[in-house]
TrEMBL record:
GO terms for molecular function: ATP binding; kinase activity; magnesium ion binding; potassium ion binding; pyruvate kinase activity. Gene3D superfamilies: Phosphoenolpyruvate-binding domains, Pyruvate kinase, C-terminal domain. Residues 45-168 form the Pyruvate kinase barrel domain. Its EC number is 2.7.1.40. It comes from the Eukaryota. This is Pyruvate kinase.
Amino acid sequence: MQVLEIRGPDIICLVKNSASLVGSVFTMHVSQVHIDLPTLTDVDRQLRAFIKAHNLHETQIFAKIETVEGLRHFDEILQEADGVILSRGNLGIDLAPEKVFLFQKSAIYRCNMVGKPAIITRVVDSMTANLRPTRAEATDVANAVLDGTDGILLGPETLRGLYPIEAIRTVGRICAEAEGVYNLPLHFKRIVKHVGEPMSHAESVASSAVRAAITVKASMIVVFTSSGRAARLIAKYRPLVPVFAVVIPRLKTNSLKWTFTGSSQARQLLGVRGVYPILASPNVATSGGSSEESGLKLALDHGKSVGLLKPNDQVVVFQKIGDSSVVKIVALEDQHYI
């Protein structure tokens, strides 16, 4: 619609094209207009108070970029957010069609370089009413994977679409096919070049773990973590093999009760490309020096059960011992590791 005039509280518009409004949820987007409203609403403040009251300090915040203003401040937003959702629906209105792909590639690249998840939306809109996506949509999904995106977020396809299950399965198959031809070694080199030298201690060890996995042709990487940071750093370098993150619970207290952390950290790792979190039991966390040994056995047993490991395979293990970070290679022999 095009605004013709404003009469008090009323806005007179000209409908530029015909359309059908389907469903019960509608939003209005005003293109190229700065809306002078507070960024934080009362609902946002209530949510922040709720998070604080329930001690949910591990809560992650993903920034949704959907306007040109968001593009202008992308780097500042990325620095503060835990991840980015690229809302291409509204961006497609604000930006000229020929500019959308440039922003998508640039935004995903910048997220990849700092190791933060990038998620894109609006990929198979035609599947709201059709059983199959268009060829352009299928190619779009594959290109998003090849660009380095961490996830695909379906909206109307599953909210009000006629084929929500088929949409999920179709997008999943396209992503799996694209993953098979994704140039992971090239991505590894790009990130190493971007980080530069001298590397920080954490970056150096994480990249070394991935480089070791490439060199010995390991079948998987096992990383021990409590916060999830180590697993995210390794995933940032896009290893060729799955990363099994063994999340070790930690005992903490708020002066009133004792609780174990770990469940939220493990759930959050599900959103990181290539990472498969395993939440260790509290018994592993309290078993002293044998915790890593028990956690490694847990990861290896799971790897065998899903068919990722077989006799004589090698596994790269990343763990912290005291103040030191250690990368070691474990060889499996006759269903046992040595």
